[in-house]
TrEMBL record, chains A, B:
This is AcrR family transcriptional regulator. Pfam families: TetR_C_33, TetR_N. SUPFAM superfamilies: Homeodomain-like, Tetracyclin repressor-like, C-terminal domain. PANTHER family: HTH-TYPE TRANSCRIPTIONAL REGULATOR BETI, HTH-TYPE TRANSCRIPTIONAL REGULATOR RUTR. InterPro entries: Homeodomain-like_sf (IPR009057), HTH-type_TetR-like_transc_reg (IPR050109), HTH_TetR (IPR001647), MT1864/Rv1816-like_C (IPR025996), Tet_transcr_reg_TetR-rel_C_sf (IPR036271). Residues 35-54 bind DNA. The keyword Transcription applies. The keyword DNA-binding applies. It comes from the Bacteria.
Amino acid sequence: MSIQARRERERAERERLIIEAARELAESEGWEAVTTRRLAERVEYSQPVLYSHFKGKDAIMAAVAVEGCADLAAELRAGRLKADGPEEALAAIADAYSSFAERRPALYDAIFSQRVDLPFATPEAPAPLQAAFGELLEAVRPFAGDDDLGLLTETLWSGLHGLVTLMRDGRLPPEGHCGRVAILLDRFAH
Amino acid sequence: MSIQARRERERAERERLIIEAARELAESEGWEAVTTRRLAERVEYSQPVLYSHFKGKDAIMAAVAVEGCADLAAELRAGRLKADGPEEALAAIADAYSSFAERRPALYDAIFSQRVDLPFATPEAPAPLQAAFGELLEAVRPFAGDDDLGLLTETLWSGLHGLVTLMRDGRLPPEGHCGRVAILLDRFAH
DNA sequence: ACAGAAACGCTAGCGGTGCTAGAGTCGAGA
DNA sequence: TCTCGACTCTAGCACCGCTAGCGTTTCTGT
């Protein structure tokens, strides 16, 4: 039994290795540089080994996304708890969100932009995703009023997502970013 | 002189053919199905011909995006002019925008999601892009108040963009879409 | 009218991609 | 010690974007 246990442990370690290598490669050179060949070389195994852990490249990206989302959730939470007062908390969340998107674009892409089949707005959604959304939810709650809290949070989230993605792809000038975030927050936290 | 004119005319026609084939292929099967080989086969020329018209696949997508944006601008304008009153005009614009994104996802992607080097928020931006943004601008103008009109429009645009992209990628449940748009508009047109 | 030149589209191929079939190795249990 | 099963590797498939270089066709100057 201990032999099998050791094998499973080693397998789990290797899976972690793959995910970390994929994340590092993506963060340093972008997702287009993450190929199964380079990834295999990086973890010092052959390509087919990757496919014994993950169904395909998409599944690897999804795994990286889930882990990255835990980081995002932690940063959102830290920002929210550090602030005092609902307005400050909402501003802190928004700052943390766009800061994460700017500092870790590859991670942000995997979570929110790349086409990767992750269950999102369902109970089966991975915990980190729900945690990150939960942080937004708590920050928005004081301003819900008569609106549905879930829909309101989704709408604010969409606003932030649109701002950071359009800016990062060069469709919005970076110099106006703070002003746009301020407008968005002002409209949501009246 | 007329010979050269005919040649240039034929060349221009072929370029149109390429752009239309790319658009049709993308709209019917998605951009991942648009390969240079399939495109070449579709226009009944060899692959290298594509490269005598466009620098690469990205440039073809950019051309499709610019044309598609003209359609978008027209639909936004139609929606805006049909409505009476600023509130209705803004709502019409938002409806037209998300309707376009839903009906023509491939076109929307080429314009707003795919990484393609189009100059956006500059004077060199292609006219259709400026026209589409201009429609948003006019719809937002009555609600600018003390805010900078440009920034405010960019922010509303980001909100709409976030809503439609997150929904289309399965990150937001479709059934809440109307509610979210209503919330967004309510917050911008007080 | 004809030779030379230039423009043009083609075939063939490069280096890469995600992914997999099948061979080979190696360790565990009888 | 031998057998068998689990596991990893090599090699290769079909495809990708892109391009070098050849051959034909058309225009130009004499």
